[in-house]
Every structure is written in structure tokens, then in C-alpha cells.
Amino acid sequence: MALVTRWATHGRPTERNAHPHMTAQVSVVHNGIIENFRELRADLEAKGHTFETDTDTEAVVHLITHEMQNGLGPVEAARAALKQLRGAFALGIIFAGQDDLMIAARQGSPLALGHGTGEMYLGSDAIALAPFTDTITYLEEGDWAVMHRSGAEIFDRDGRRVDRPSVKSVASSLLVDKGNHRHFMAKEIHEQPEVIPNTLANYIDMVTARVNFPDLGIDLASINRVTISACGTAYYAGLVAKYWIERIARVPVEIDVASEMRYREAPLPKDGLAVFVSQSGETADTLATLRYCKANGQRIASIVNVRTSTIARESDAVLPTLAGPEIGVASTKAFTCQLSVLACLAVAIGRARGTISAEQEVEIVNGLIELPRHIAALLRNEQTFVAIAQDLSKARDVLYLGRGTSYPLALEGALKLKEISYIHAEGYAAGELKHGPIALIDENVPVIVVAPEDDLFEKTISNMQEVAARGGQIILISDALPEKISCKVAAHILMPKVSSFATPLLYAVPTQLIAYHTAVVMGTDVDQPRNLAKSVTVE
Ligand code: AGP
């Protein structure tokens, strides 16, 4: 059995932090985040274990080793260790002297077994395995497997033996595979528990729970304004960042869609920072605005999913999202990875300007670190969105409402729905309802309200009461318990409680699932919706 080297999910991508991590008895490669690794590490160090790296993975290695030192065999030691881990992760484990044994475990991050001739493989998906085999078995959430050259035994999270089907993959190392999903969009929504921590690990020191942001070549303490420009979903990510940066770093943010900003000759501050957000890195309007800002003396930072893209090449600083290839035209995992980078940028500017304390920073970072687990849990309850989609599919118009950072989410949710289901949908600041949109409300208009129980929640409840009074059918996305909702709703998607800073990343997922399942009911081309391209490289 062989474990291939991969870069650290934690800590800076250095050789010291690269996988596999090992003791004399155990070697592990790992994708995702072990949220409770600091507690495990402290406990194991107290028991005499010595750690060499800054990674969470090493805690897994020592935990399994410790269980073996307590007399358990490799398989039982791995199983005992798995029960103690919290977070969203995928693991590959091998043991000294056991050259016909590998343990695999999936909890929140995709994992697939590859069937070779007299050998077995382990990878995140069919692409990773394409060079070795096209016969794939996808592990389900919570599965773990005992692998031998001759095959694998798969168990569920309760230790019951289960059978998972083997499928022929069409992936090659060049193509992209839908995995065991019906559409690329579905696969990409489900990859978020894996790709968000991969992105965060590039900007956060997981051991200290502090932001570790690359040098943008500009003194963040001295900037007097941040300019953000992007298009579509990427613009909505930037709009969330406006709220974050202004609240945390007390720096004004000017944001505009690139198709407008490129022509209005906006005056720009001397030595300002201009941030461009783009999944493809090739969007013509965004590139044109980047060039305008560069010509006007701005320091250019770009948040892109394609590091070799034109926007990246023309930037002074590139901040990659590590979302992996995003094939579905409707952007999902790239959006939440963009938010991950922007959240770290907001904290980095706040720390440089002394407007955020170390305790506040640690609280924000920990809130981001625990997100993958909550997203994985949401995805396990995906079925609840099918019923909502059935109702939405009958609507002609849908309204999305939100306040604060939930307002850009309302805009993004409306964009998701309209671009793949072709149902007309509009996002509004909830406070804007009485300035016109309320005229639209009647029993035929579903209203999707994004409302975490934050300091704006009661005001949003008031808006919901106005909607309900006119027969509007409310679908509420909120962590507030039913008894806190003094308004009739048609459906309530109960969300887990997370830090207010993390809510935009978490609340994006139900809006993605609502759009996806509605489009499936509508029978539209989910991955390639009509009239749209994945990258708009022309005006
Ligand atoms: C998002 O679902 C849309 N496909 C579209 O709005 C997209 O976000 C926009 O075209 C920007 O693309 P970019 O991120 O590649 O620049």
C-alpha cells in the first residue's frame, strides 16, 4: 500500500507540514479539518507524545498510535481514534509491518476507493484515481473501510458492514467526473466541506487560530479605502466583504459591478487597495476594471480560482481559492471559498489597523474552522429541500429578503434560482420591502427570507409579518427556534447556531440547494443553463 504525498491541510504549505504524517507505527494522509485537534494534541502530549509539525493530521497519527500502544490492533485502533475526531475530513491510514492493509474514512469530505488488479487505491474522487483505475466505489458520509489488495470491507458510522456499489468512471485525468452525483453542481455543492478548509488553511494558522495572510505589498494599516469589483456571484461575495471590512477594520469600502465601474471613471484614492473577485479569472468586465484601477495607481489583489488566469497574471497579489475545478455554470463552492478568503482579508486589515483584538480574531477564526462540519450536516438533510423545490417550481416570481450580510445572500440566492430554473427571482434588502416590492406580494409569491438570529433578526421578523399579512408564502432560513418566530411561515429551514461572522458561508448552502432542486424539478439543464457561459470573456 502506498500513500501519496499531498500538501498540508493545516499550516503553511511547507515540506515539514506535507503529508503523510507518521509515527514509527502509523502513517496518515488527510483532507479537511480535525476541529478538536488542539484538545487531542494537548492530551496526547500530556501522555508523552511528541509532535513535529503544526498540522491537525499529526494528532490523528499519534491518537491511533496511542490506541495501539494501549493494546488495540491496527483496525480497532483506527476505529477507536475515528470516534474521537470532530470536523469534516477524509483519511487514508497505513501501518508499519502491515503491507496489505489500509484504512479509509470519510466524514464530510468526499472519498473514493479504486479497484485495481490485485491492488486497491484511495482518492478524493474519480479524477484522482483515473490514472490507476476506472472502477470506483464512493464511500458515503460516515463510512470507513478496511482495504486489502484483494478488496475492501466497508462499514457505516455505527460499525455495521455495508455494501456500496462499484461504478465505472468516465473520468480521465483530463476530464472531470460528477462522482456519484447527477450534476456537477450537486457535486460541487457537496465538495464545500472539503474545499472551504483547503482554502482556509492557506490563510489561517490552525494551531494558533490566527489569520496568516500573505503580504499584499501594501501597508494594510495605511490604506484609507478598499475598492472591490466583480460580476455576478463574485460581486455578491465582495458585497458581503464590504460589511465585514467596514465593521471589523473600520475602512470604507467602495464596491461596484465591474460592468459599471469600468466606465464611470470612479475617482480612486492615492495608494488604495483594489480587490477583484473572479472564479474564472477571465471575466472581461472584471479584467477591464482591474486595468482601470491599475492605471490609476491602485495596488491590485485578485481572488481567483484559476491561478494561471489573465486576472491573476495582471494582479500585484494573487489570493487563490482552492475550490478545485468548478464546472457547473452556477457558481457554488467558488462562492463560499471566495468568502473564506475575504473573511481572512477583513481580519488581516483589522489586525493591521488595530481595530480587532487577538481574542476577537481567534473567535472569528474558530467560527470559520467549525463551518465544514455544519455544512456537512446540512448536506445530510438535503432531502428537506426537495419538498420546498416542488412548491417553488410552481411560482412565477420569487422574492429573497435579507438584512446586513444576509442581504447579499438574498441577492445571490435569487441569482442562483433564476439562472438555473429560469423562474424570475429578485433579492432585496428586507428594509426595502415597503419602498415598492411589497406591491408584488400575494399568495402566489414565495418569499425566501435569510435571517440568522442576529441583531437585525427582529426587524426582519417585522418584514415577514408584513409579507404574511398579504398572503405571501414565507420560506425562512434561520437558526432561530420556532418559538422565536412570531410569524406564520410555509417552511422553516432550521440552521445550526454559528458565529455571526460565519453565517454568510453557511447560509449560502440552503440557497444553493433550493435553486438546485427547483431546477431539477423544472427539468432545466442544471449544469449548462440556457444563454449562460461559465466565463463571460466578452462584454
Ligand atoms: C454565477 O452563478 C454566475 N455563473 C455568474 O454570475 C458568475 O458569477 C459571473 O459571471 C462572474 O464569473 P467569474 O467569477 O468567473 O468572474
What does this entry look like structurally?
The chain is an alpha/beta fold and 539 residues long. It folds into 3 domains: 21-174, Glutamine Phosphoribosylpyrophosphate, subunit 1, domain 1 (4-Layer Sandwich); 184-378, Rossmann fold (3-Layer(aba) Sandwich), CATH 3.40.50; 383-522, Rossmann fold, CATH 3.40.50. The protein contains 17 helices and 23 strands. It has a 7-stranded antiparallel sheet with strand order 1-2-3-4-8-9-10. A hairpin with a 4-residue loop joins strand 12 and strand 13. The longest helix has 21 residues, at 333-353. It is globular, with a radius of gyration of 24 Å. The model is unreliable at 1-9 (pLDDT under 50). 2-deoxy-2-amino glucitol-6-phosphate (AGP) binds next to helix 7.
The poorly predicted ranges are: 1-9
Radius of gyration computed on alpha carbons:
24 Å
Q: What share of the residues does DSSP label as strand, in percent?
A: 15-25%
Class from helix and strand fractions:
alpha/beta
- The termini sit apart by 52 Å
Oligomer: single chain
The domain count comes to 3
Strand order of the largest sheet: 1-2-3-4-8-9-10
Number of helices: 17
Main sheet summary:
7 strands, antiparallel
Q: Please tell me what the overall shape is.
A: globular
CATH-derived topology of the largest domain = Rossmann fold
Ligand list? 2-deoxy-2-amino glucitol-6-phosphate
Task: Quickly give the CATH architecture of the largest domain.
Answer: 3-Layer(aba) Sandwich
In the CATH hierarchy, what is the superfamily of the largest domain? Glucose-6-phosphate isomerase like protein, domain 1
Q: What is the CATH class name of the largest domain?
A: Alpha Beta
What percentage of residues falls in helices of 4 or more residues? 25-40%
Kindly state the mean pLDDT as a whole number? 92
- Could you give the count of β-strands? 23
